[in-house]
Amino acid sequence: MSEIINIPKGTKDVLPSESHRWQWVELAAREVCLLYNYREIRTPVFEHTPLFLRSIGADTDVVGKEMYTFLDKGGRSVTLKPEGTAPVARSFVENNLESESLPLKLYYFTPVFRYERPQAGRLREHHQFGVEVYGGDNAYFDYEVIELAYKLLKTLTSPAFGAKLQDGDLALHLNSIGCPVCRKAYHEKLKAFLRERLDDLCPTCRERYEKNPLRVIDCKVEACKALVADAPKIYDHICPDCRAHMDKLTEILDKSGIPYRIDKNIVRGLDYYTKTVFEFVTTKLGAQGTVCGGGRYNGLVESIGGKPTPCVGFGMGIERLLLLLDAAGVETPVFCPVVFVASQSPAYIEYCRELCGELRNGLTVETDYMGRSLKAQLKYADKRKASYVVIVGENEVKSGELTLKDMTAGTSAAVKREQVGDYIRKDWQGQINRYHQFIERSKKTDDGIFG
Fold it and tell me: At what angle do helices 16-35 and 318-328 cross, to 10 degrees?
């Protein structure tokens, strides 16, 4: 196959054998958002480039090195969105969403694009689930988005799904990076520290030194990371207002029982962050351990032409989350049983077609139209992970009682044709009920995965 029609480097097909796992994660995320009354927003895949220059920051790696930017046929500079927050802020301003009752609570699923070296869970096209809250300025809103992420991660990594994680395999890391008031004074302290090491910094960091010294702390070059290890931490230099906000957030977290660690090295990679920044970090994925990152960005809306509006939220990489679930041994549950109707002879294809139509009332049903042997059909049903197989043959058609095989339990029963659907739904509902009881029990106990 020629290179021109191969998949581009840094992208990946989601194959039918994998897509159900994505759907499960998305379903779990939607259900958690529903509990908190968040509504979905969808923004375009590309935006005008100035949106990201003004919001993310011209001195960030994202803008300077990673954006897919090009001229359209009208000569306008457009960019495939490298993250999900700025487009939502643009939509908030452009569509006058501030006129709605605030706080406005939103969530999204989106592809994002960054031209960087592909790595595990971080491709050039990857996907994010994110939430945003507009109009809430106090620490309770910071807590709510953290709790939402915590609840989702805790659900997806529950022992009910076979997860095998140890204490501390997932952890909430928390920091405050201040506001424009305290950051100005901190920058002077940081620049004084960096001045003596300036010649040893990478070329990019030497540029950042003048424009935005905080970005030096976020440099991924190992030599720079070593040089700034002992640099002053902004957490130790935040103003009284930012300190009060952070103290209130940690107080709420302490009362809620959500464990966290103060990590003074977190600054996040985008300029719009203020005050709270946080990450959920796992030890199961090596160096690329962040599965969720977010914080507060009170100046974002104003930076793109809107009225001053406090905001807080997070983004969660779906690919990296799926890698975590793999590493934890999570078994993706099936919420709808698959029923395969198998015929002992091609003569009963029409009978099977009619039966499928009857059963497709809340059940996923498939049959064989290729005239394969019963043995081949059962093998196919097993590969398709059918929960039940209904066998149709001469005796079944004459008696009106069909053979129903429970593929999980390995048992068989003779069931009247008109009762097959109800029989399967009742049997499956019993399994679902037991599953939900297990989940509820797991929520009431500390499973030890966060620490």
Answer: 100
Domains belonging to the chain, first-starting first, are 3-179+238-328 (3.30.930.10), 338-440 (3.40.50.800)
pLDDT of 16 > 50? The answer is yes
User: For residue 58, is pLDDT > 70?
Assistant: no
Tokens of 1: 């196959």
Residue 399 one-letter amino acid? S
Residue 448 confidence (pLDDT): 47
Q: What is the 3-state secondary structure (H, E, C) of the chain?
A: CCHHHCCCCCCCCCCHHHHHHHHHHHHHHHHHHHHCCCEECCCCCEEEHHHHHHHCCCCCHHHHHHCEEEECCCCCEEEECCCCHHHHHHHHHHCCHHHCCCCEEEEEEEEEECCCCCECCECCEEEEEEEEEECCCCHHHHHHHHHHHHHHHHHHCCHHHCCCCCCCCEEEEEEECCCHHHHHHHHHHHHHHHHCCHHHCCHHHHHHHHHCCHHHHCCCCHHHHHHCCCCCCHHHHCCHHHHHHHHHHHHHHHHHCCCCEECCCCCCCCCCCEEEEEEEEECCCCCCCEEEEEEECCCHHHHCCCCCCCEEEEEEEHHHHHHHHHHHCCCCCCCCCEEEEEECCHHHHHHHHHHHHHHCCCCEEEECCCCCCHHHHHHHHHHCCCCEEEEECHHHHHHCEEEEEECCCCEEEEEEHHHHHHHHHHHHHHHHHHHHHHHHHHHCCCCCCEC
Angle at 134 between CA 129 and CA 22, to 5 degrees: 10
Of the pLDDT bands very low, low, confident and very high (cuts 50, 70, 90), residue 251 is very high
pLDDT digits (tens, 9 = 90+) for 286-334: 766 899 999 999 999 999 999 999 999 999 999 999 999 999 999 887 6
Strand partners, 343: 392
> pTM for the whole thing?
0.86
Mean pLDDT of the chain: 88
**Predicted confidence (pLDDT) per residue in 78-104, tens digit:** 999 999 999 999 999 999 999 989 999
